[in-house]
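# nightly structure sweep
# worker-07 picked up a monomer target from the shared queue
# config: single-sequence mode, recycle default, output format = structure tokens
# input follows
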Amino acid sequence: MKRIITVLSVLLIAGTQPANAQSEAGAIFLLIAPGARAGGMGEAQVAIADDAYASYWNPAGLGFLEGSELAMMHVNWLPNLADDLYYEFLAYRKKYPNLGTVGGHLIFLSLGEQTRTNEVGENLGTFNSFMTAFSLSYSALISQNSSFGINAKISYQQLVDLGAGSEKGTGASTDFGFDIGYLRKELFTPKLNFGLNISNIGPSVSFIDPDQADPQPTNLVMGINYAIAQSEFNKLNIVYDVNKMLVASYPDMDWDGDGYIGLHDEDGHYNGTGDYNSDGKMEMAHTDPIYLALFTSWVDDWLLGGDMDKYKSGYEGDRVIGGYDWVDADGNDKIDDSPWFDENENGIMDDGEGEMIPTDGEPGDAGWGLYNKWGQKEVGSGKDRGINNELDKLVHNLGFEYWYGEYFALRAGYYYDKTGKISNPTVGIGLRFAGYGFDFGYTSGEVGHPLTNTMRFSLNMEF
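# output follows
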């Protein structure tokens, strides 16, 4: 089980969207980018979507395509982490005159062989973990230059085959969802295309405990595809996508400003243990349902933010906002000119010359500490945030594609996720001949990064 926890943790930062939002979402394997062509272009594709992979990137792109196509990809996933993780993708599309284009794709992610242990760490054998999803796509033109598309999908995740100890059920989940896409060609100028896709809209994902269900990784991506050069033998396009996770998640929040987290029931009655405040508003960590998150996910990190408690190293929290000051080795209070520090090996904020100490009194009293025991500011933290906290969570994908004639392509790109600390350059090549296509994409990056040295191989067949 320790291995699968490590794998899933790395998937949070090695997927394709912001890590902070992913950590509150389930079925994150749905965010792994398929296609070696996309892999060589910084994973920017929503405004291209001109092959069978459009069923994943933007189903609206299928409406412009003629004939039939089969596409497949293989990649050894996270090669720096383990040698038995792999990802497979299979897609198909077919145009029906006067009806539109029907297609779909199949995803399979193997997490390899895991070791089963009981609650005291004893070895109970091995099992295999995997995740898979099937999507059915439909797309049609709504004008000469625009189309829409939709996916209906079902996914299945098997992390463990049975619960541990007193847990009921198995570590498996079956879920459904859908995607909606739009593609507009020749927007303002014949050289510019615009694409939009909202993916993974659906109910929450749960495994053994339904009360701990996580929202699906609902994601909005918008992008452009601009033709820099278009001639008979030379074509050069620049593509750019920006991603926004539509998941609104909150840590423990002091919404009413009384200095305490919860302690009331949902009717606002004090009971000393409830998750609500006196106004009946939830203050314990939670996520918004999808119908709210479509809107609140744009402001949950700044406008809606209040005082918050962020816990470290398994600390469950004291339901109190603040209560600690940082004092240096000489006993001098450093609140007003705090550096702020880095985390030490125990996860506690420390500059090596002082420590956090509790203050006297109650929340709201003069001299009440602004920080928690980990050195994180809690009192007034909402006032310290702004729209930049939301913008920092956007993921940017930039790519270039050069075609010599219709047979050979060179690609380059860059993937940037500030909060996920991902900044990976990519390169790739493509070959087309007699209806067959081969693509290769390579992701570079810092030594030791989970995505560094990832190689994608794709094959397309048109008929």
